């Protein structure tokens, strides 16, 4: 090591057991640092690796631990942060915040917390930010410590309280009583037969809409099960009764697809209809806003453009939200706010086990479409290793030669150490190699909304023959010519997500083939898990298998369908605990329905904070 007294610069080299070296540098170094290193044979350093002016790898101002001089290292959490914010700065801020941990609100009453044998929220937060040296590192990483479970249980209890309160309130919400007329004529004019499941769903919706209270129903159906036609029945029933209907989708392409389906299937119904997305011409947009604000009966299909301040729908009688889990809680609330008495119909292709549906969706009436339309050819699923990819590329070549199209799904956009799992690298290699001569497109989450729509249009219209993508195509549009789905690194995904991806093919009159490719890193357990998809085609059965194999956590977060955004519920380890928390929430509300007692103060504070956030979001922008 060498130093400069006037600048107190200290630099030197660290070398590992394999002879690899990296430079360490301190400016204004502590006076005793040089002596400490001189007496040390080993050192542990932590910091950001960069290149110096001479091109050498170096760490500037690393944190240092000398095993023969310092006490044992404590476990330290690593926080997500931008490049300009260091871990030490975040830890210092967290330490200051932890002094107020006892003031954190908690929803779960003390008697229930003791019953579940969980630490308090304050103790849980302190444990996770200051784990003791003897803490189980793997349990911390997996989110399975009692501290994780305490935060998840507290949030789930608040979630269940909100669901129960909403369910009770919905019983008294005044709605519009609709009489079916034109909607039944719509069923008779369809150029295909409805499945038994579709007819059952329509009857359930008919009963809801006939009541003078609001409908609040979730329609669960796998990709291709016919949810759109069921929703159109409700739309026609609404407009025929002199009201307005709005159908909101997460993408412009999906809105355009629903609009085109309505125009194609309803030519004999002289109802006014329009498309309202960011891509609509200003003149058409002004015209649509004008007739909507005037209260004229009709239906509008759109994206989040439907919930902007400029949109007024004084006679909104039905709000349909497709792929509803793609919208936040507040977007759904904004749409409902356009028509305080309107019925709500939510659509989702995410399969949810019935045991969890009873818990997550207790404030909704649930209908399940569990049949595929007659005449749909089957999709065959194949499980193989990377060595079998040559045959897969040959299959794609043959399918494209017949006029069909193919998807290739990979987990990463880019990856320095796993190029074989990167969509950018794969698209380049495929176009140069086994798929040379084919029109290959690229799709991933870094593309803008306009770029994604442009790529999907090109694939739909045949300008692209193969689409290499991440899972962003999970919510997509109908491409009847798509007959092949290749999913590389399939062991990285949940069964329910793989099933949804598989649903993007085989939607025309030709059979589909889904290839699940297991990477070399996968073990026998991963292969056994994926065999479920080879053997089963029912979304509900696959979701149940996923629940048993992976636990309920994957069904929370962005995929959940309740009134609260959940941050910690993915740590829940079993359904029984969730069911227990639901029962405790119901028990608590029976004894204190207004949450007025001192014991309910924590739960009341948590729910008031959520309501305040919701109101802020509803009035923003």
User: Unreliable segments (pLDDT under 50, ≥5 consecutive)?
Assistant: 557-564, 615-621
Indicate the CATH topology of the largest domain: Rossmann fold
In CATH, what is the homologous superfamily of the largest domain?
Answer: P-loop containing nucleotide triphosphate hydrolases
Just give the CATH class of the largest domain: Alpha Beta
* Straight-line N-to-C gap: 57 Å
Q: Total helix count? A: 21
The strands making up the biggest β-sheet line up spatially as: 10-11-9-12-13-8-14
> What is the beta-strand fraction?
15-25%
Structural class assignment = alpha/beta
Mean pLDDT equals 84
Our count of domains comes out at 4
The best one-word shape is globular
Helix content: 25-40%
The CATH architecture of the largest domain would be 3-Layer(aba) Sandwich
Strand tally is 20
The description of the largest β-sheet is:
7 strands, parallel
Please give the radius of gyration in angstroms: 28 Å
Describe the 3D structure.
- With 621 residues, this protein is of the alpha/beta class.
- 40% of the residues lie in helices and 16% in strands.
- Helix 11 (282-293) links the parallel strand 10 and strand 11.
- Helix 4 packs across helix 6 (146-170), helix 6 crosses helix 20 (575-591) and helix 7 (182-189) runs antiparallel to helix 9 (227-240).
- It is globular and about 90 Å long.
- The N and C termini lie far apart (57 Å).
């Amino acid at each position: 090591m060498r130093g400069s007294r006037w600048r107190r610069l200290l630099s030197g080299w660290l070398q590992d057991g394999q002879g690899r070296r990296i430079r360490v540098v301190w400016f204004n170094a502590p006076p005793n640092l040089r002596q400490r290193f001189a007496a040390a044979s080993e050192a542990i350093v932590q910091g950001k690796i960069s290149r110096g002016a001479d091109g050498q790898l170096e760490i500037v101002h690393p944190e240092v631990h000398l095993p023969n001089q310092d006490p044992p290292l404590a476990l330290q959490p690593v926080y997500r942060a931008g490049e300009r914010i260091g871990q030490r700065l975040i830890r210092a801020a967290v330490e200051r915040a932890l002094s107020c941990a006892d003031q954190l609100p908690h929803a779960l009453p003390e008697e229930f917390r003791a019953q579940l044998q969980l630490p308090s929220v304050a103790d849980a937060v302190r444990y996770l930010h200051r784990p003791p040296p003897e803490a189980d590192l793997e349990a911390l990483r997996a989110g399975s410590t009692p501290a994780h479970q305490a935060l998840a249980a507290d949030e789930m209890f608040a979630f269940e309280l909100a669901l129960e309160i909403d369910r009770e309130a919905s019983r008294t919400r005044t709605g519009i009583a609709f009489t079916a007329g034109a909607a039944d004529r719509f069923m008779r004019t369809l150029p295909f037969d409805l499945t038994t499941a579709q007819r059952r769903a329509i009857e359930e919706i008919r009963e809801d809409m006939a009541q003078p209270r609001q409908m609040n129903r979730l329609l669960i159906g796998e990709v291709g099960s016919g949810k759109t036609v069921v929703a159109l029945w409700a739309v026609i029933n609404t407009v025929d009764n002199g009201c307005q209907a709005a159908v909101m989708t997460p993408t412009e392409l999906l809105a355009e697809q629903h609009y085109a389906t309505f125009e194609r299937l309803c030519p004999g119904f002289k109802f006014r209809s329009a498309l309202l997305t960011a891509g609509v011409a200003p003149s058409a947009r002004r015209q649509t806003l004008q007739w909507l604000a005037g209260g004229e009966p009709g239906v509008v299909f759109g994206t989040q453009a439907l919930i902007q301040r400029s949109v007024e729908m004084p006679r909104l009688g039905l709000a349909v939200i497709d792929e509803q889990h793609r919208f936040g809680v507040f977007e759904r609330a904004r749409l409902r706010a356009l028509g305080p008495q309107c019925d709500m119909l939510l659509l989702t292709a995410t399969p949810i086990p019935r045991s969890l549906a009873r818990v997550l969706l207790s404030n909704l009436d649930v209908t399940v479409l569990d049949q595929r339309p007659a005449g749909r050819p089957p999709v065959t699923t194949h499980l193989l290793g990377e060595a079998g990819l040559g045959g897969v590329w040959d299959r794609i070549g043959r399918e494209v030669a017949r006029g069909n199209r193919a998807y290739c799904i990979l987990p990463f956009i880019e990856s320095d150490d796993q190029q074989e799992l990167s969509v950018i690298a794969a698209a380049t290699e495929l176009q140069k190699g086994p798929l040379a001569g084919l029109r290959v497109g690229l799709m991933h989450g870094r593309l803008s909304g306009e770029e994604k729509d442009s790529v999907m249009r090109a694939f739909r219209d045949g300008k692209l023959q193969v689409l290499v993508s991440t899972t962003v195509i999970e919510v997509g549009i109908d491409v009847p010519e798509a007959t092949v789905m290749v999913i590389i690194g399939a062991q990285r995904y949940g069964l329910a997500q793989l099933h949804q991806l598989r649903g993007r093919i085989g939607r025309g009159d030709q059979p589909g083939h889904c290839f699940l490719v297991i990477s070399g890193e996968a073990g026998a357990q991963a292969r056994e898990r994926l065999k479920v998809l080879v053997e089963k085609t029912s979304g509900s059965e696959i979701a149940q298998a996923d629940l048993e194999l992976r636990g309920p956590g994957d069904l929370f977060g962005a995929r959940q369908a309740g009134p609260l955004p959940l941050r910690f519920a993915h740590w829940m380890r079993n359904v029984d605990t969730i069911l227990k928390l639901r029962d405790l929430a119901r028990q608590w509300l029976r004894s204190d329905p207004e949450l007025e007692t001192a014991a309910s103060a924590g739960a009341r504070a948590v729910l008031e904070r959520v309501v305040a956030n919701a109101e802020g979001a509803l009035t923003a922008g």
